[in-house]
């Protein structure tokens, strides 16, 4: 079936590790849109940090943010939003316990609240070009819902904590590693796959006409659901095995290889 919607992960897919948009990828997106294919961003980021790359590729089309927890458009507003309740937030924070990593909460799509800074996060406001509000007593004083919880620590500690929370909260929350030093906790059932499916239904586009590209574990459900899931070349073996296609790595500007693939699919 003819491709009609392309959903792109940001970090490690559209963007390099230092959050830069390669010129080749920007040109590829323009070519793909010229084929009549809609392009959407599907990311674990919030809208506050996804908006800049969205603008860099033309400021067109919808976004799936917070790993599916928020779907919408910066100008046209929210289509879908799913959040953790205040009780959920405190239950998760209590399970994280005395681990000394950074806890982040998001009361809405454009507000980022962080418990404290560490060497891992000290440059993030500049890197992501977004304000971050520090709240020293976040772990005990948080009030209201949050679109997700982000936990940031060393890769070893994130891996250990993720395994613990996945076992503890199986069937209650989604717990996934989005990058080696960060873990995300969301309402049960909320994944990029869920978000892309809802977006495709809203646009009246069948699953078989949806292409998606990603590189990390939080992309797995999206790659499984899409008619054509594509893994970036640097992705883990698990992600590559899930995908229908494997592109070159981000270092090799892998999205450029998608252009001739889509041209062939269009016939």
Structure description:
- This protein folds into two domains: 154 residues, 3-Layer(aba) Sandwich (Rossmann fold); 102 residues, Hypothetical Protein, Haloacid Dehalogenase-like Hydrolase, Chain: A, domain 2 (2-Layer Sandwich), CATH 3.30.1240.10.
- It has ten helices and 14 strands.
- The strands form two sheets. An eight-stranded mixed beta sheet has the order 5-4-3-2-1-12-13-14, sandwiched between helices. A six-stranded mixed beta sheet has the order 8-7-6-9-11-10, with helices on one face.
- The longest helix has 14 residues.
- The N and C termini lie close together (10 Å).
Mean pLDDT: 97
Spell the H/E element sequence. EHEHEEEHEEHEHEHEEHEHEHEH
Q: Count of helices?
A: 10
Amount of helix: 25-40%
CATH architecture of the largest domain: 3-Layer(aba) Sandwich
Could you name the key traits of this structure?
14 strands; 267 residues; 10 helices; globular; Rossmann fold; single chain; alpha/beta; eight-stranded mixed beta sheet; Hypothetical Protein, Haloacid Dehalogenase-like Hydrolase, Chain: A, domain 2
């Amino acid at each position: 079936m003819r491709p009609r919607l392309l959903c792109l992960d940001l970090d490690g897919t559209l963007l390099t590790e230092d959050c830069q948009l390669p010129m080749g990828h920007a040109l590829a997106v323009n070519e793909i849109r010229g084929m009549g294919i809609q392009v959407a961003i599907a990311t674990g980021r919030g809208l506050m940090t996804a908006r800049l790359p969205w603008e860099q590729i033309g400021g067109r089309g919808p976004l799936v943010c917070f790993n599916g927890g928020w779907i919408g458009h910066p100008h046209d507003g929210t289509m879908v939003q799913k959040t953790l309740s205040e009780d959920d937030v405190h239950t998760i924070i209590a399970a994280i316990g005395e681990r000394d990593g950074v806890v982040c909460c998001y009361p809405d799509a454009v507000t980022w609240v962080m418990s404290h800074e560490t060497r891992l996060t000290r440059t993030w406001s500049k890197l992501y070009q977004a304000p971050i509000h520090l709240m020293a007593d976040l772990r005990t004083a948080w009030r209201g819902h949050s679109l997700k919880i982000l936990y940031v620590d060393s890769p070893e500690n994130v891996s250990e904590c993720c395994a613990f929370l996945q076992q503890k909260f199986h069937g209650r929350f989604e717990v996934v590693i989005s990058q080696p030093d960060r873990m995300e906790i969301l309402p049960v059932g909320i994944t990029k796959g869920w978000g892309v499916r809802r977006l495709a239904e809203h646009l009246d586009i069948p699953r078989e006409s949806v292409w998606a590209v990603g590189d990390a574990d939080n992309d797995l459900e999206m790659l499984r659901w899409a008619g054509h899931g594509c893994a970036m070349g640097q992705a883990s073996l698990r992600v590559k095995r899930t995908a229908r296609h494997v592109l070159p790595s981000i270092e090799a500007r892998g999205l450029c290889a998608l252009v001739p693939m889509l041209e062939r699919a269009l016939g």
